[in-house]
């Protein structure tokens, strides 16, 4: 994996879903990350369409990525396909949540 994508993922791992109290990387909410020169394009989802923290999480994603030196702009696309399931979570997240 590209070093810059790994740096972006590390920054995204600091974004916490307040409802589940885990980061969005371990929850499997990030579907795709692309870096085109200095513009980062991210596709992500939420556990449910009615996620009460959706707006704050998306704002925190953009802030986390745009503070990276080599990123000038973060475009965030919310996607609902494929539907998020608990199987997308990392082993750490499943153990933490007991699923």
Automatic annotation (TrEMBL):
Quote the Gene3D superfamilies the UniProt record gives: Fe-S cluster assembly (FSCA)
Q: Name one Pfam family in it.
A: FeS_assembly_P
* Segments forming domain MIP18 family-like: 8-69
- Superkingdom per UniProt: Bacteria
Coiled-coil regions in this chain? none
Q: What is this protein called?
A: MIP18 family-like domain-containing protein
Species this protein is from: Companilactobacillus nodensis DSM 19682 = JCM 14932 = NBRC 107160
């Amino acid at each position: 994996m590209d070093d810059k994508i790994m740096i972006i993922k590390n920054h995204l791992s600091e974004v916490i879903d307040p409802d589940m109290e885990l980061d969005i990387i371990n929850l499997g909410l990030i579907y795709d990350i692309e870096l085109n020169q200095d513009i980062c394009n991210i596709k992500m989802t939420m556990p449910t369409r009615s996620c009460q923290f959706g707006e704050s999480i998306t704002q925190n994603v953009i802030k986390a990525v745009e503070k990276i030196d080599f990123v000038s702009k973060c475009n965030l696309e919310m996607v609902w396909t494929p539907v998020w399931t608990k199987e997308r979570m990392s082993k750490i997240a499943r153990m933490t949540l007991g699923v």
